[in-house]
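Hi all, long-time lurker, first post. I run a small reading group and we've been trying to get comfortable going from sequence to structure in the token notation. Rather than ask abstract questions, I figured I'd post a concrete chain and ask someone more experienced to write out its structure so we can walk through it together at our next meeting. Sequence below, copied exactly:
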Amino acid sequence: MPRLTRLTPDTAVGASRDLLADLVSRHGQIGDMVSTMAHSPAVLGGYLQLSRAMGRAKLDRRTSERISIAVQALQGCGLCLDAHVSAARVMGVDEEEIERAHAGTSADPAIAAIITLALEVYREPTSITDEQVSALREHGYSDRAIADVVGLVALNILTGAFNLLAGITPGGDSGA
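-- Answer (accepted) --
Happy to help. Here is the structure in token form:
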């Protein structure tokens, strides 16, 4: 049961009304998470900006979806986890790799290393070592791709934590 109500362009006020009206005009509909985030124009605006920015991340989508699966499996947001698993499937990530991502790893050593980094960013960023970053570079990751992991984890923390707080669960429409 949702803890916070959904807003629409008619029920939102101020900046949130404008943001929702723009989203509805461009996309036709908005999901539960976005319409509920509208209670805070700062949260909604920040989410939209970070989401757009991460769309330009250097990490390929198949890798970023596996990172998101690993983070959401740990964080516990079923709505986000379902959305990222679905996206991974659409991109051709096989079921074994999806299960590995749930467990925080991959059969591909380079992807396993970047997932490990993401989980350390989530859990304990002070544990990240120079050797770990050097190993990521040896796997072919650029400094930009490595830095993008922080933004991707931050986006997952924001969406997952918001959905958990707001009581938004799988079964409604997805805004994650």
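A couple of things your group might point at:
The mean pLDDT is 94.
The longest helix spans residues 143-166.
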